[in-house]
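#random but structural
TW: two for the price of one
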Amino acid sequence: MTISENRNGPLIELIVQGRLDTNTAPELESKLKVLAPEAQTLYLNLSGIEYVSSAGLRVILLAHKLMLPTGGKMILKSPSSFCRQVLEATGMDGILTIE
C-alpha cells in the first residue's frame, strides 16, 4: 500500500493505493491520527484500492470518527469498484459520504 498526501489549507487528501488489509491498515491509522486534527475536510481517495479487508474498513470508519469532534468531515473519494462493493455489502455506504 502507498499513501500520498495533498494539502490545500484545511483540506487534506490522502490517496491510498494497493491493499488495505491487516498488514497495511495500521500505517493508514497512524497517518490519520496525526492528520485528522489538522483537517477541516479529509478526503480519502480510494480509487487505487485493489482489496479492502475488515481491518481496512475499521480504519476507514475510524477516519470518519476522528473528524467528528472537530466538526470536520471525511469524504471517500472515487472508491474503486471492489471497494464500493464492500462498502455497499457492509452498509457503510449509508453511513459515510462518498463522492
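TW: number two ↓
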Amino acid sequence: VILKNHLLNKKNLEAGRVLIKREIKKKSKLYVRPRFLIPITKKASGIRMGKGKGPISDYICFLKMDSCLYEVSNINLPNALKILKKLSYKFRHPIALVHKSGTRYYIK
C-alpha cells in the first residue's frame, strides 16, 4: 500500500515487480494492481514551437493514498517484511505492508 498520493510510471512499477519476483521465486503468486491509463506526450528535442502535439511517450497512473500496488499470496511474514524493506528504496514515497488480518507494517 502506498501512503501518499503519487504519480507512478511503468519503470518504477516494473522495477518493484522484478524485485518481488526475484525474492519469492515460484512459491507465491504476484498480482500487480495499478492500470496505466493516462498518456504522456513528448515532442522531440530541437523541434520548433507549434506543429501540433508530440507522440505518446509514456503512460502513467495516479495513485491515491492507501492504494494497493502489489498483492502476494502464500508468503510468510518475515519474507514479506524483507521485500518491503527493499521496495522502500525503489519508491520515493512511504509504503506499508498490509497483512490479510488488517495489520499494517511500516518501514522506518
